[in-house]
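Hello,

I think I submitted the magnesium ion job twice by accident. Can you confirm which output corresponds to this input? Input:
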Amino acid sequence: MKSYHGKSVYGGIAIGKIRFWKKSDADIACYRVKNPDEEFIRFEKALSEAKNQIDNLKEKALNEVGEENAEIFEIHKLMLEDKDYIESVENIICNQGINAEYAVSATAETFAAMFSGMDDHYMQARAVDVRDISDRIVDILSKKSESIVSYNEPVIIVAEDLTPSEALQLDKSKILAFVTFKGSLNSHTAILARTMNIPAIIGVDLISNEDIDGNLAVVDGFSGTIYIEPDEEFLKKSYQCLKEELEKKELLETLKGKENTTLDGKKIELFANIGNIKDVSLVIENDANGIGLFRSEFIFLEKNTFPSEEEQFAIYKNAVETMAGKKVIIRTLDIGADKKVDYFKLEQEENPALGLRAIRLCIKRPEIFKTQLRALLRASFYGNLSIMFPMITSLKEVCDVKRMVYQTAAELESQNINYKIPEMGIMIETPAAVMISDELAKEVDFFSIGTNDLSQYSMAIDRQNEELDEFFDPYHKAIIRMIDITTQNAHKAGIWVGICGELAADTDLTQTFLSIGVDELSVSPSRLLPVRKKIREIDLRKK
Ligand code: PEP
Ligand code: MG
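Support: Only one job matched these inputs. Its output is below.
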């Protein structure tokens, strides 16, 4: 058995035979044409046929992967209409008298190289798209039919790379997994794989040949590993994992796409909590309405040094793009207390949970906070991003951080860098914040109640100390009342309120939260469907 590692695009287990996907690699002939003007007309006709094909593909994508993901084909159409692209082809055909197929493929290479050389990851990922549209035109010019590939049995597709249209043309019911040598997490093929719920790995270091074609393999999309020719024992274990996966999926399928609505028609948003960009696939798999808490400090905890603005920007942008228009609430750094990072070089504290943590640290170390804010504001330009500040205790803190956000925006503006000011919310996780929630509500766009810290600070019980478990009452009336006070104050000011602490996932409290009027619950991905199930069983007319 051999195993190869790559980057996980989408989790899941797949077992089956490998089909090595190979593009037709016949060299594109280059020759002089007698009548360049006629040749250009031939190109124009192919261009218009390519647009028709893309319209059809977009229609297919709309049905199979939804509106946001189908947008890639809108981008393809725009690329086909790009003046520079057409001018480059025209120049090669008309001024140099070269055939259209070659003119298109040479233009594709020039544009792909230009995109690959850009700093911006999003633009880099467009190289594959310009090749995709150009291959389509070349296929039309050389009268090749659209290559709809179908297999007799479901297979694991292994390929050098896959374009979005190739991925979409494959019969989804016959694809067990995608494994590619190239590709970026940002590519639309990766996004499509996630949305199609197909285990996918990219950047796998496999020898690019067809020797593996037909071999049995196990793809573990969670760890990003493909095992080729697995031994009997490993195969047995993998089948067991697959069985468990399928059972989970069955429950998932019945609840997927369903509203989070009670029997008497009350609707609530159900979002997911994540700590890592990799978790976004779980969010999609479990059909969350958005991300309610992205604990950004995990990005810092996983590193030995401060993540740069670019690194953070790439992660936040990836999250909003993958969530394709759904809300992504990123909580700013919540370092301190139990979440310690050596390179922050923080002083030893007597009571770290009551010490320099979260927003206090950001206010005291503006250079760290500013870098994060720049990355967040820039990523906000690419999707539906909101930011949320942790551990707020006073109005002054909110005004201070908002001022820092606007200063950062002004800085980006003066540097001509794309940005958008996101919705800004705060966590309500200290009793002080609850008590002044009427005033805080006037300053922000939303509240998210952090019941983990709110319980610790209200009951004076260190959340890390298991010795105190017997004194801890997760259903303490004080907490339920504080949730009620916060919700009423939020609604009076016209803002929405959610819960993102662990209590949000407790189905024994779902009815209580709904009766109070909480607008959103944000839970770990694995709890989304059980909570949805509970919501759908509740009838608020019955006490
Ligand atoms: C909370 O305190 O409830 C919360 C969601 O934040 P964390 O658990 O990350 O402190
Ligand atoms: Mg907290």
